[in-house]
Amino acid sequence: MPFQVSAVQWEGYTITGEDGRPATLAVIDQDGKVLDAGPEVAQEIWDLAILSYRQVLVGESLLRIYSTPEGLLQDSDDE
Q: What keywords are assigned to this protein (predicted)?
């Protein structure tokens, strides 16, 4: 396998090259020019994926978010 991408919710993406060394994600245009690369790109893509998934769960009523006046997220006990 030329590279491997794995993901864990609390760690984000882990990307390794075929030699097992760490690699990163890049945004490349159709001419092959690297527009941006690095850990910030990987983090932004991870955040976008999580946000999108959460929005699907909320839309399907599979995820509900509750907050106290202090702003702490918590599960509701009345379900």
A: Plasmid
Determine the pLDDT at residue 36: 94
40-to-15, 20, 60, 67 alpha-carbon distances in Å: 14, 21, 30, 29
> CB–CB of 5/14 below 8 Å?
yes
pTM above 0.70, yes or no: no
The one-letter code for the residue type at 59 is G
Q: Where are the beta strands (DSSP E) in 9-76?
A: 12-17, 26-28, 34-37, 66-67, 73-74
Pairing status of strand 26-28 against strand 12-17:
unpaired
